[in-house]
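queue> pop job 88
queue> type: inverse folding (structure -> sequence)
queue> payload:
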């Protein structure tokens, strides 16, 4: 019956849409607007990739309120397309501040970008307050003719 409930709720309120499985109101784009947290408990996972290369197109504080991860991977490396997005990194701080529990969170950027560097420096105090650690790795994996940064995570 969950499909019936979903279909009823989307027909009864056509202005709502689903983004990352979370109901949002597309007419409300103001950063100051507060969207209601959807019903149901948050989801706890060990590792989560921030959707769409950390683009602000579909990730907001609601994502971080609902998807609570020990590790978040930021894979964006395309400044022209706003990846990673400063707004998404700020949304992590806002979402985590509402968890009500001070669980350790590790942010893993896959690229060293100006956006992540500036965000790290400007919000370092808030990160410490929220128990968020940004993991930088100087490890490199070499495969045939390629080499790329690497990070080892143990659970």
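queue> result:
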């Amino acid at each position: 019956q969950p499909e019936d409930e979903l279909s009823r709720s989307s027909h009864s309120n056509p202005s709502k849409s689903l983004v990352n499985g979370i109901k949002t109101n597309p007419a409300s784009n103001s950063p100051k607007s507060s969207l209601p947290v959807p019903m149901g408990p948050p989801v706890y996972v060990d590792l989560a990739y921030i959707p769409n290369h950390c683009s602000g197109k579909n990730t907001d504080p609601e994502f971080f309120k609902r998807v609570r991860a020990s590790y978040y991977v930021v894979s964006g490396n395309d400044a022209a397309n706003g990846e990673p997005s400063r707004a998404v990194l700020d949304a992590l701080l806002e979402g985590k501040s509402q968890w009500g529990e001070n669980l350790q969170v590790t942010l893993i950027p896959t690229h060293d970008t100006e956006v992540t560097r500036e965000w790290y420096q400007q919000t370092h105090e808030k990160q410490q307050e929220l128990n968020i650690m940004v993991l930088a790795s100087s490890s490199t994996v070499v495969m045939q003719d390629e080499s790329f940064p690497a990070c080892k995570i143990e659970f």
